[in-house]
């Protein structure tokens, strides 16, 4: 669906998001001794933010620029025939 | 406590299994069925990042400072992997195009294949990694002692004499292991398929081992996470670890670790080796960039539970080292099988790191440190020896041993007083010094060798001064006064408070302190010196090839940078010395085959072969050494800036040429299409003409036969038949005239006879000659001629032909029932204007241009093919144009057509 440039842009955006999630001010927001589902909230936040980041990476990485490539191929075929 | 024999037996059994996997991997690679060529094995091999530091050290760090004490080391790589697509992929692409074999090779190659840079990078890498190696030695020897004695002995007391120290034997064992694994024979490519397979397996083992102990502790000893955290919260000492420390130390520690690990994940020599050098296919990166972070997340889930469980079980026992809580907990539970599995997991983590790291470092030491020196030592006469591959191999083996001995010595004197994580971070800070030279080098063409070199040296010096020196001092080296009062009593230069920046004392983490100052000087000098120094030609070329790798990648493969000549024999003998006879023969054969030359007959090698030789050599001895080697036999013609530019221009040119070629091809294709179309039209023309000729001819013949065989035909019918014969033959001759005229006009052979003529009279004449036709079709003709005579200089006969053509054309398309044709003539200031208007089917706007083209006939699927040859209007147009006039048609479908032409009035024409 996307070309190389916009794929790069997505990753750069994700990188910025990652830096934001683990920056000091955001960490202090969750810096509490309270527990959620029996797990201290700070730990819970760390791992879930990390997991979300990995999930977004999967989405970005697996969105290969395959479709336009296939399209151009089929157009060529049409021209040939 | 477990018997020593059992531990040793299991360890050797496990190592043998690794060898088997490596052997299998190699064999499969040799037959072309690589088992490592998939993104999953690639991602697992990246997990060589997780060493004993991760396996044991994280737990210790977590039990001291909670989650922020260790998790940054794994979040950093995750962030870097996000940039895998733009950054790591670029590094891989560059390395493949330039046959890069190590990180030193990479930096040296970027900065003009400089052997100085390669040497400096190697020294930094070796000295920087030594502490890291010692971490692994410590982990293996400590866990071995733990298992065999059931408690930690000698770790915090006086070190035992060297030859009774388990750690020394561990180091020697690791050295032997690494030599067997990575330096048994010489590869031209420096890729180790078997090794990668074994490393990936080790990554799997350590992950499973850690998850097992984590599950056992969380669900076996306690009742899940909630239970464990609830019990932990009862102890204030543990409860305070639920959150991070809100002070400068916590802040700088978090960011320091995050920053260092972000860089270390690519710039540690072993990481560079597995990510870049051992990469089989660039596409594997796409999956690995998220698989690897997922691995990191998995291996970290149980760190906190194990740490808290350890704290709960052993709180108050000073002897216990928190780094080894995992094993201690299992030993306390007397769970021997799991204990051994976890020990093997730790062994995997440590050996994986040591093997890859020492192989990477030994390659660098050999290629970038020892070889260049040996070449310069004329006494050694290296350049005259015949087979160097054995020497190369022995240098590498010695290098592996050296690195491990250095690691042991650092362990022996320093590491015992440190935790695993704090020592590991020293190494991270060292390799971070490569970042400006590499990241700057692949994105900024202006980065120069001088800039990179000064940045590297400054950064390394700051690192050694602010981080290594204090660590030595704490290990009872007599450096106390230096640390307390600064060198020569200058307080501003105190290693841990450089220029007054507080380290430790004011809560500023010492790693952050080092990172800040080393990066400040490293980057400052890198950019500053680069801006004020110039690049030589080789540098310029390399800079362009690196920065624009996605543009030049293919060209770089073939780029013959050498404008030089050398004898084939000499090049061959160099190759034989480093690669051996067999491989040299194979490689040259391949080259000769690809380029269709016979190397047996060639005496002098062209630039392409020289370049090829250099690339082959670079695979074996690094690009800097290869460059030096080849230079020694090649009579290189000096290469000026212009040559470099022309090399780059050439590639540019190729791109431009190919674009031109494309457009020419397109033109040709279009012309070809046009020719085909014309050919088609011509065929149609011929069949039309034949048809048109045959129809009147048939009727002429038929009527003539009737007249001939019936002499007694009555006069009326006789008259009628002969009349038809006359009109049909007129039509025939008109057709033939058309074709002949067309031929004449097209070939330009026509003779024009211009004379002053009355245009009105011509129109009247032509109406007379077509009157029969008009009459036959029941057409109402209207003439609109001015009263004043209008004269122009025209070719009378041709002009009549124009009018007849237009008239018969109008008749042809006229309304069949109520045909009406109108002819008009008017005189305008500069031109004479004539029109012929019909009320026929009309012409669509699209066809209005086409009808003047040769052989064109407007086709109307609903109606029969119009008769005529299709050249009439073309002839008309040519004649009008020969009179410097213009002809066009005004029409709409269904509303008739109006053909209009104008011809200029010449000086001698006009009204009279």
Brief write-up:
The complex is a heterodimer of chains A (81) and B (912). Chain A is mostly helical and 81 residues long.
Explained architecture:
The complex is a heterodimer of chains A (81) and B (912). Chain A is mostly helical. Chain A has helices spanning 4-21, 24-29, 41-62, 66-80; strands at 35-36, 39-40. Chain A has 4 helices and 2 strands. A two-stranded antiparallel ribbon of chain A has the order 1-2. The radius of gyration of chain A is 20 Å and the shape is elongated. By secondary structure, chain B is mainly alpha-helical. Helices cover 67% and strands 6% of the residues of chain B. The model of chain B is unreliable at 153-158, 555-560, 638-642, 861-865 and 908-912 (pLDDT under 50). Classes of the chains: A mainly alpha (81), B mainly alpha (912). Chains A and B meet through helix 1, helix 2, strand 2 and helix 3 of A and helix 4, helix 5, helix 10, helix 12 and helix 14 of B.
Shape by Cα distribution of chain B: elongated
Average pLDDT for all residues of chain A: 77
What structural class do helix, strand and pairing data of chain B support? mainly alpha
Tell me the fraction of residues in β-strands of chain B, as a range: 5-15%
Spans of chain A with pLDDT under 50 lasting ≥5 residues? 66-81
How are the strands ordered across the major sheet of chain B? 5-7-8-10-9
Q: Can you count the helices of chain A? A: 4
| Lateral arrangement of strands in the main beta sheet of chain A | 1-2
- Terminal residue distance of chain A: 26 Å
Order of secondary-structure elements of chain A: HHEEHH
Radius of gyration of chain A: 20 Å
Strand content of chain A: under 5%
Question: Into which percent range does the helicity of residues of chain A fall?
Answer: over 70%
Oligomer: heterodimer
Q: Which structural class matches the secondary elements of chain A?
A: mainly alpha
- Low-pLDDT sequence parts of chain B: 153-158, 555-560, 638-642, 861-865, 908-912
Shape verdict of chain A = elongated
Rg of chain B: 46 Å
């Amino acid at each position: 669906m996307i070309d190389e440039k916009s794929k790069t842009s997505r990753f750069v955006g994700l990188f910025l998001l990652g830096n934001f999630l683990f920056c000091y001010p955001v960490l202090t927001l969750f810096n509490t001794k309270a527990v959620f589902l029996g797990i201290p909230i700070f730990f819970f936040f760390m791992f879930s933010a990390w997991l979300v980041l990995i999930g977004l990476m999967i989405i970005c990485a697996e969105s290969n620029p395959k479709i336009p490539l296939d399209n151009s191929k089929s157009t060529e075929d049409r021209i040939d025939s | 406590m477990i018997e020593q024999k059992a531990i040793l037996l299991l360890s050797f059994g496990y190592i043998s299994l690794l060898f088997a996997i490596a052997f299998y991997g190699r064999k499969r690679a040799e037959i072309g069925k690589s088992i490592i060529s998939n993104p999953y094995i690639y991602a697992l091999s990246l997990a060589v990042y997780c060493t004993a530091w991760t396996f044991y050290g994280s737990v210790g760090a977590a039990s001291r400072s909670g989650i922020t004490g260790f998790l940054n080391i794994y979040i950093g790589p995750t962030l870097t992997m996000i940039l895998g697509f733009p950054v790591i992929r670029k590094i891989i692409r560059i390395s493949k195009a330039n046959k890069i074999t190590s990180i030193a090779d990479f930096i040296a190659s970027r900065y003009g294949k400089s052997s100085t840079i390669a040497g400096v990078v190697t020294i930094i890498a070796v000295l920087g990694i030594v502490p890291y190696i010692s971490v692994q030695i410590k982990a293996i020897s400590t866990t071995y002692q733990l298992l065999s004695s059931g408690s930690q002995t000698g770790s915090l007391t006086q070190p035992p004499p060297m030859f009774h120290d388990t750690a020394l034997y561990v180091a020697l064992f690791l050295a032997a292991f690494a030599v067997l694994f990575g330096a048994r024979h010489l590869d031209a490519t420096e890729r180790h398929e078997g090794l990668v397979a074994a490393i990936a397996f080790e990554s799997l083992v350590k992950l499973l081992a850690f998850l097992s102990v984590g599950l056992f502790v969380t669900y076996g000893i306690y009742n899940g996470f909630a239970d464990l955290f609830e019990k932990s919260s009862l102890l204030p000492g543990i409860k305070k670890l639920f959150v991070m420390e809100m002070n400068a130390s916590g802040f700088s520690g978090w960011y320091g670790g995050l920053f260092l690990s972000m860089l270390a994940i690519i710039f540690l020599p072993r990481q560079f080796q597995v990510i870049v050098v051992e990469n089989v296919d660039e596409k594997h990166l796409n999956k690995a960039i998220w698989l690897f972070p997922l691995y990191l997340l998995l291996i970290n889930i149980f760190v906190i539970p194990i740490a808290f469980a350890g704290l709960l079980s052993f709180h108050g026992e000073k002897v216990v080292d928190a780094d080894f809580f995992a094993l201690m907990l299992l030993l306390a539970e007397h769970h021997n099988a799991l204990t051994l599995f976890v020990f093997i997991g730790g062994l995997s983590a440590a050996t994986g790191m040591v093997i890859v790291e020492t192989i990477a470092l030994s390659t660098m030491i050999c290629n970038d440190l020892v070889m260049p020196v040996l070449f310069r030592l004329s006494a050694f006469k290296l350049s005259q020896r015949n087979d160097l591959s054995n020497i190369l191999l022995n240098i590498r083996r010695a290098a592996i041993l050296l690195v491990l001995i250095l690691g042991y010595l650092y362990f022996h004197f320093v590491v015992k007083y440190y935790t695993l994580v704090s020592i590991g971070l020293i190494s991270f800070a060292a390799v971070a010094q490569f970042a400006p030279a590499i990241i700057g080098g692949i994105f900024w063409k202006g980065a120069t060798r001088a800039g990179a070199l000064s940045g590297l040296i400054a950064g390394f010096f700051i690192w050694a001064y602010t981080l290594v020196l204090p660590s030595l001092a704490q290990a009872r080296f007599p450096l106390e006064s230096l640390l307390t009062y600064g060198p020569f009593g200058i307080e501003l230069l105190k290693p841990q408070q450089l220029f007054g920046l507080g380290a430790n004392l004011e809560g500023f983490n010492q790693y952050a302190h080092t990172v800040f100052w080393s990066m400040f000087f490293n980057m400052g000098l890198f950019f500053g010196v680069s801006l004020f120094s110039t690049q030589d030609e080789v540098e310029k070329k390399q800079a362009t090839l690196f920065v624009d790798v996605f543009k030049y990648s293919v060209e770089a493969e073939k780029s013959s940078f050498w404008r030089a000549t050398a004898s084939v024999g000499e090049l061959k003998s160099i190759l034989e010395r480093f690669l051996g006879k067999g491989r040299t023969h194979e490689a040259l054969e391949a080259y000769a085959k690809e380029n269709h030359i016979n190397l047996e007959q060639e005496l002098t090698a062209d630039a392409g072969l020289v370049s090829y030789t250099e690339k082959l050599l670079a695979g074996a001895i690094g690009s800097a050494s290869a460059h030096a080697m080849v230079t020694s036999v090649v009579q290189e013609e000096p290469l000026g800036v212009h040559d470099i530019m022309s090399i780059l221009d050439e590639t540019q040119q190729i791109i431009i040429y190919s674009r031109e070629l494309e457009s020419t091809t397109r033109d040709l294709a279009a012309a070809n299409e046009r020719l085909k179309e014309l050919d088609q039209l011509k065929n149609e023309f011929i069949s039309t003409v034949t048809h048109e000729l045959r129809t009147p001819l048939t009727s002429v013949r038929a009527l003539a036969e009737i007249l001939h065989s019936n002499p007694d035909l009555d006069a009326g019918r006789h008259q009628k038949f002969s009349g038809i014969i006359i009109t049909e033959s007129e039509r025939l001759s008109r057709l033939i005239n058309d074709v002949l005229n067309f031929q004449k006009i097209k070939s330009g052979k026509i003779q024009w006879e211009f004379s002053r003529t009355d245009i009105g009279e011509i129109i009247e004449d032509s109406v007379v000659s077509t009157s029969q036709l008009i009459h036959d079709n029941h057409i109402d003709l209207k003439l609109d001629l001015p009263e004043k005579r209008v004269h122009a200089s025209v070719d009378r006969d041709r002009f009549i032909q124009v009018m007849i053509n237009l008239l018969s054309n109008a008749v042809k398309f006229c309304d069949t029932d109520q045909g009406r044709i109108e002819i008009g003539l008017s005189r305008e200031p500069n031109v004479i204007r004539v029109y012929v208007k019909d009320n026929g089917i009309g012409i669509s706007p699209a066809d209005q241009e086409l009808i003047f083209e040769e052989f064109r006939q407007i086709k109307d699927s609903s109606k029969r093919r119009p008769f005529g040859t299709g050249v009439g209007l073309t002839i008309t147009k040519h004649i009008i144009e020969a009179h410097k006039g213009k002809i066009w048609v005004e029409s709409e479908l269904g509303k008739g057509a109006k053909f209009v032409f104008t011809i200029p009035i010449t000086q001698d024409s006009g009204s009279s």
